[in-house]
Design goal:
This is Large-conductance mechanosensitive ion channel. Keywords: Cell membrane, Ion channel, Ion transport, Membrane, Transmembrane, Transmembrane helix, Transport. GO terms for molecular function: mechanosensitive monoatomic ion channel activity. The chain has 103 residues and is mainly alpha-helical. Helix 2 runs antiparallel to helix 3. The radius of gyration is 21 Å and the shape is elongated.
């Protein structure tokens, strides 16, 4: 058995091409979600976060000597929630699971 044949079997057995496609799609979805949150959702939430009239990215709460940058955190939290929901939908729909359970 030649090295080329072994490599082909490796690619087929571990479904490397499918994994590579999934990785690329995941990176693309992450970029898309970040744009959705930063360009569409957060400007709508900006009046609630930045009461001083500044940009939502700079929304900060000062508690004594500590400055909490909650605007950026809120954006990242929304990013996470959307991506987690997309992963859940993939597990539910694409894998045709009737119920996602713990193992």
């Amino acid at each position: 058995m030649g090295i080329i044949q072994e490599f082909r079997e490796f690619l087929e057995e571990y479904k490397v091409v499918g994994l590579a496609v999934a990785f690329i799609m995941g990176a693309t979805v992450t970029t898309l979600v970040q744009s959705l949150v930063n360009d569409i959702i957060m400007p709508c939430i900006n009046p609630l976060l930045a009461s001083t009239g500044s940009d939502w990215k700079n929304a900060t709460a000062v508690i004594g000597p500590v400055a909490l940058k909650y605007g950026s955190f809120t954006s990242n939290l929304i990013n996470f929630m959307i991506i987690a929901f997309v992963v859940f939908l993939i597990a539910k729909v694409v894998l045709k699971e009737t119920k996602v359970t713990k193992k």
